[in-house]
Design brief:
494 residues, Rossmann fold, Alpha-Beta Plaits, 4 domains, 5-stranded parallel sheet, 5-stranded mixed sheet, 24 helices, DNA-binding transcription factor activity
């Protein structure tokens, strides 16, 4: 029986998911937990095949215990979250979830994800049974992929075959089963690739792989990539070959499919900071505020589509892209676009960033989505923002410019400066200069906490002409000079 565990702090949500699964999948056994301690205990006693859990249910104290337990028991994971942010995406990636679903939960999306994982597991079980007799001769089995046994090391060569669309793997496996290589091989079908293990011999495996790829292309339009790992030593375990092929296949994120990847190109990932720098955030504010699609395209191309070996680790690139998506989200909220069809497209793009197999597909979809936003704003810009909001938006997106004035804000809002001044006093109880300085100080305080750049540089990037004036305004608003503020906040965070 297929066992599913639901873990959510909200009892109403938990009961709703339980009812949905039980009513839709009668043969499934579904149980629940409502806190982290209950979740760990339930994992150990119930040992589910699938865990559907709220991401924020796992705090820092229980994270290690949760990770260790899931690694031992090995359920597939579907995470739920209210926040479409890069930090939540990173947590989900680190935990190894199969899917990340945003709340409020769509019954169709949840069921589709759970059924897909269930079908995949059934397929793996069937193929494991079908090929058991083949593997038994050499004592190869699925356990060898996940448990390192040094005494089982032997001269091996391994081949990974990955389909651009994982749903095509069953067809690819059928084709592979009827295919004849020069040497007897053993197959492992996994969730996103097929692993082939063979004893080392004088077979030219690159030529064999090229022949297989050509034959496959004659029967299917589905793109595949093939990795070949012979190892640095004379012997190796099945697990070492599995991990090496998985790492080789990650390069397809940058290079694409329809190619052979050999172990000579085993990637050594380049270390990068995945988050936007303050300067990059300012550039993005400019891009979005000015609806400069061409500048955005150039930035994307230079930043992501000219990468070469050594590549950044793909997970870091995905986090960097969600950091950009956060800037886009802020722009959407400014123009009150975070609902309806626009919200659906945003959530779809978030999933694309997390799971798309190719970087250029992600970039193309991001550019298309931004273009859609620009067109929507352009078609109805005056109605999207009230007068006060337009002025505040102007301040938020131009605070970094030392030349910002009330006159420029009035020109942007298409009103008289005196009228703007009077309107701000009435609606906000503050002058234009006070609102501008508050925005600048809020941004500078963020930089003082989150970065190590000098106070002089912070003053400059936040729109102040000199550090002395910055110190004066900061002290007036925060009650202390910026250097003291930084020290206190750093001590607090420690």
């Amino acid at each position: 029986m297929y066992k599913v565990l639901v873990a959510n702090r909200d009892e109403y949500d938990t009961k709703g998911i339980e009812w949905l699964l039980k009513s839709s999948m009668n043969a499934w056994q579904v149980e629940s937990a409502q806190n982290e301690s209950g979740l760990i205990k339930k994992l150990e006693t119930f040992q589910p095949d699938l865990l559907i859990f709220e991401l924020d249910l796992i705090n820092e104290e229980s994270y290690d215990s949760f990770l260790k337990t899931t690694q031992i028991i090995g359920p597939d994971l579907i995470a739920l979250t209210m926040e479409a942010t890069f930090s939540q995406a990173k947590r989900a990636i680190d935990m190894g979830v199969s899917d990340l679903i945003l709340k409020p939960i769509s019954a169709d999306i949840l069921l589709k994800s759970a059924r897909k994982i269930h079908r995949r597991n059934q397929m793996i079980s069937r193929t494991a049974e079908q090929n058991f007799s083949k593997k038994a001769e050499k004592d190869f089995n699925y356990q060898d992929l996940f448990i390192e046994e040094s005494d089982s090391a032997q001269p091996l060569v391994s081949i990974g075959i990955k389909s651009k669309n994982p749903l095509e793997l069953p067809e690819l496996f059928k084709f592979l089963e009827s295919y004849t290589f020069q040497k007897a091989v053993h197959y492992f079908i996994l969730s996103d690739m097929i692993l082939i293990i063979a004893e080392k011999s004088d077979v030219a495996w690159k030529e064999e792989s090229l022949r297989f790829m050509r034959d496959w292309q004659e029967t299917s339009a589905e793109q595949i990539a093939i990795s070949i790992y012979t190892g640095k030593e004379d012997s190796g375990t099945v697990r070492s070959h599995y991990l090496a092929n998985r790492k080789l296949m990650e390069v397809t994120f940058y290079r694409g499919f329809n190619q052979i990847i050999e172990d000579s190109s085993l990637p050594k990932w380049l270390s990068i900071d995945p988050f936007l720098t303050p300067e990059e955030q300012s550039r993005w504010i400019d891009f979005l505020n000015q609806s400069d699609l061409e500048a955005l395209k150039s930035w994307f191309y230079e930043e992501f589509l000219t990468l070469a070996d050594p590549y950044p680790e793909p997970g870091l690139i995905r986090i960097r892209l969600t950091s950009i998506l956060a800037q886009i989200r802020r722009h959407m909220k400014t123009f009150r676009l975070a609902d309806g069809d626009m919200e659906k497209e945003y959530l779809r793009l978030f999933q694309t960033i997390l799971y798309s197999p190719l970087i250029y597909q992600v970039i193309n979809e991001m550019i298309s989505f931004i273009s859609y936003i620009f067109e929507t704003i352009r078609s109805d810009k005056k109605l999207k923002l009230e007068l006060t909001d337009r002025v505040l938006f102007f301040i938020e997106t131009n605070y970094w410019d030392p030349k910002v004035t009330l006159e420029r804000a009035a020109e942007y809002a298409d009103r008289n400066p005196n009228y703007i001044s009077s309107m701000l006093a009435k609606k906000c109880g503050k002058s234009f200069r006070e609102l501008l300085n508050e925005t600048r100080i809020r941004q500078s305080a963020k930089l003082l906490i989150e970065s190590e750049i000098s106070i002089k540089e912070i003053a400059s990037v936040c729109g102040f002409r000199n550090q002395q004036y910055f110190n004066k305004v900061f002290s007036k608003i925060k009650g202390m000079p910026p250097n003291q503020f930084r020290k206190i906040m750093h001590k607090t965070s420690v």
